[in-house]
Amino acid sequence: MKNTTIKKTADDPSLWLKEFDIEVSSGSERVYNNGRQQIKISLIVEPRSGQEVTDAQFSTLMPVYRDNDGSFVTLPQDHSADGWFYSVEEDLNYDYFPSTASVEPMKGALLNADGSQNTLLVMTPQGHWKLDEQSPPGHRPQSNPVLEKFLDAQNRISAARRVKTFYIHTKARAGTTVTLYARIEKDAETIYTSDEAESEIKLYSEPTRQLIFPEDYDLSKKIISESLSATPSERDPERFIYEFSLKPKYIDFSSAKYESNASESRGMIKWQDHSNSQPRATHVGVAFPGSRNVNYNDTLTLGGQFPPRKVKQISDDNTGKIVVLMQGDNQIPYHSADYDKQGPMKIQALDRFGTQHTLAIRFDESQDSAFDKRSNLTVESRTESHVDTHTAAEEFVSITHFQVKGLNSNTHKQSCRLYNNGWQQTYINVVITATNERNEQVELSDGILNKIQLVDYDTGADLSPSAYTITRTQSEIDKLFHIIPASVIAKETTEAPINDQAATPAQGGQSITFWVRTKAVTNKTIAARLVHDGVTYHTYQRDVAPGGETRSGNSNSAAEISPLEQNYHYTAKNFILTRTNASDDLRSDIIDIDLYKLKINSAEHHITSSDYEPAVWMFDYIAGKKANSLAYFRRNNTSTTVTLYYHLNYQPIAVNRTVGEANAVRVKSNSLGPDGESYVGVLMVYRDQYGNGHNVWLNPASEANLITIS
Question: Which of 121, 357, 381, 534 would bridge 108 by S-S if both were Cys, CB 3.0 to 4.6 A apart?
Answer without folding.
Answer: 121
